[in-house]
From TrEMBL:
It comes from Oceanobacillus zhaokaii. It is found in: Cell membrane. The keyword Amino-acid biosynthesis does not apply. Its main location: membrane. This is Cobalamin/Fe(3+)-siderophore ABC transporter ATP-binding protein. One of its GO terms (molecular function) is ATP binding. It is a peripheral membrane protein. Keywords: ATP-binding, Cell membrane, Ion transport, Iron, Iron transport, Membrane, Nucleotide-binding, Transport. One of its GO terms (biological process) is iron ion transport. InterPro entries: AAA+_ATPase, ABC_transporter-like_ATP-bd, ABC_transporter-like_CS, P-loop_NTPase, Siderophore_ABC-ATPase. Residues 4-240 form the ABC transporter domain. CDD domains: ABC_Iron-Siderophores_B12_Hemin (cd03214).
Length: 274
């Protein structure tokens, strides 16, 4: 069974069509990355998969059931979503933020419990945020703040996590830090991760499954080794490039063509870029 499935899905706002009659399957227990040029509908598709946007037509299936027919609380117990650049109220501490992840499990009859507290502490430990739990969210660095929001999604204890550009505005160190965290959640806990990424090389490194969007349609989907080719990058992004093998991970590595300083020196019969 697939974790999430979109069938004949059409999305838009008013008369503007964003996604037109697509079919996709999100493999359970894997990392799926959505790629495509700015404005192609990646974030819109992610919102629809999370039931934050009602389709014009078609359906989204969550664990074998139509997501539109599920209760909001049941959706929140199965799927967590982290939007792009979320904002916390001023003065909210990390602990208070992460506690919000337990909302689907609370009701008038069921107040804060030891189970809730344990889930919050585990989420803080998993993201290395225990020592920062009393800090206000707005006092954190970009990488720390993103970890706090990821901790919130972990406190929901869902098997599926959707993230819209989780590395936006982060420097390279913190990008790797966040992606390594998500990779560990998938490897150790079997979480299904779906995220939008712009960096094709990082997307190729971390993804098991990749979906390329272009002109309101799914242009290609499959393993990164099958999707990331020089022909696809040119067709989807209108950019010429060469695709090589990452010397450390063996995943596709996109080398854009274009202007820039190139220093070559000959060593024996090899050409080395220094």
């Amino acid at each position: 069974m697939q974790a999430l499935t979109a069938r004949d899905l059409t999305l838009g706002f008013g008369d503007k069509l964003i996604i037109d009659d697509i079919n996709i399957e999100i493999p359970k227990g894997e990392i799926t990355v959505l790629i495509g040029p700015n404005g192609c509908g990646k974030s819109t598709l992610l919102r629809a998969l999370a039931r934050l946007l009602q389709p014009k037509s078609g359906t989204v299936i969550l664990n074998g059931k139509e997501i539109a027919k599920l209760k909001t609380r049941d959706v929140a117990k199965n799927l967590a979503v982290l939007p792009q650049s979320p904002i916390a109220p001023d003065g909210l501490t990390v602990y208070e933020l992460v506690k919000q992840g337990r909302h689907p499990y609370r009701s008038f009859m069921k107040q804060w419990s030891k189970e809730d507290e344990d889930a919050v502490l585990l989420a803080l430990e998993s993201t290395n945020m225990v020592d920062l739990k009393d800090r206000t969210v707005d006092s954190l660095s970009g990488g720390q703040r993103q970890r706090a929001w990821i901790a919130l999604t972990l406190a929901q204890q869902t098997d599926i996590i959707l993230l819209d550009e989780p590395t936006t505005y982060l420097d390279l160190t913190h990008q790797i830090d966040v992606l390594d965290l998500l990779f560990d959640l998938n490897e150790k806990d079997g979480r299904t991760i779906v995220m939008v990424l712009h960096d094709l090389n990082l997307a190729s490194r971390y993804a098991h499954h990749m979906i390329a969007i272009k002109d309101k349609k799914v242009f290609a989907q499959g393993k990164p080794e099958e999707v990331i080719t020089s022909e696809l990058v040119h067709d989807v992004f209108q950019m010429k490039c060469s695709v090589a093998c990452d010397p450390m991970f063996g995943t596709p590595m996109c080398i854009p063509h274009g202007k820039g300083r190139c220093v070559l020196r000959e060593v024996g019969t090899e050409t080395i870029i220094s």
